[in-house]
Design a protein that fits this description.
By secondary structure, the chain is mainly alpha-helical. The chain has one domain (about 20-210): Serine Threonine Protein Phosphatase 5, Tetratricopeptide repeat, CATH 1.25.40. Helices cover about 80% and strands about 0% of the residues. The chain has helices at about 5-65, 70-80, 85-100, 105-120, 120-140, 140-150, 155-170, 175-190, 195-205. The longest helix is centred in the N-terminal third of the chain and has 60 residues, at about 5-65. The chain is elongated and about 110 Å long.
């Protein structure tokens, strides 16, 4: 569109602004808010990661010093404040180990249950489930322990899971199921000690255990 005079251009601009100015300002304002919000979120995310890393370092130091109480306290603080970060799950796993070494099986169970419930890393969750199942069995609840084990772990953990499943069946007195699990573990591979697994199978093959 062309205008004959400068006054016409000004009038046209005023008319356009009357019709669209508010929407333009609103759009610009929203854009500024979005950018500011994103930058703030990025800053908070970075700050949270640093804080979580510091707390995790504290938990490691406590574990190395043998300070079980501090390790568990820091792990809880970390998971309460930064539960969505992997640092929190690792701290809980470390606290569980410290609790077991201190003979506090109930505390270990609580730490591991938190890791199972909150970790969004499948491999870490599998490890937590394996450890929790062993702890639950020590607490006398083999049925719950069997249900805690992953039903279909990925290949990297299948041997480990099946060996633990076999141990749980032995604890429950089901030698036939234990043998099946041990054989599955042997076939899958990746167990910590293949020789020890073979000994477990040999023990089940003895006359007293034949079924």
């Amino acid at each position: 569109m062309s205008y004959e005079t400068e006054e016409q251009q000004v009038e046209a601009l005023k008319e356009w602004w009357d019709q669209n100015g508010r929407a333009v300002l609103l759009g610009v304002g929203l854009g500024v808010l979005i950018i500011a919000g994103y930058n703030y979120w990025q800053h908070r995310k970075a700050t949270a990661s640093i804080e979580a890393s510091d707390l995790y370092s504290q938990s490691i130091d406590a574990l190395r010093a043998g300070d079980t109480e501090l390790a568990q306290s820091v792990a809880k603080e970390l998971s309460d404040e930064h539960g969505g970060l992997l640092y929190a799950t690792y701290a809980r796993l470390g606290a569980a180990r410290a609790a077991i070494e201190a003979g506090d099986i109930e505390a270990a169970s609580a730490h591991l249950q938190w890791a199972v419930d909150n970790s969004d890393n499948p491999d870490v969750t599998t490890i937590a489930r394996i450890r929790l199942a062993r702890v639950q069995a020590e607490l006398g609840d083999v049925d719950t322990a069997l249900n805690t084990l992953p039903g279909s772990p990925n290949d990297a953990f299948k041997g480990m899971v099946e060996e633990v499943r076999g141990d749980l069946h032995v604890k429950a007195g089901d030698n036939a199921a234990a043998r099946t699990a041990y054989e599955a573990a042997q076939a899958a591979g990746g167990v910590a000690n293949p020789s020890a697994l073979q000994i477990k199978l040999n023990d089940l093959a003895g006359p007293a255990n034949a079924s």
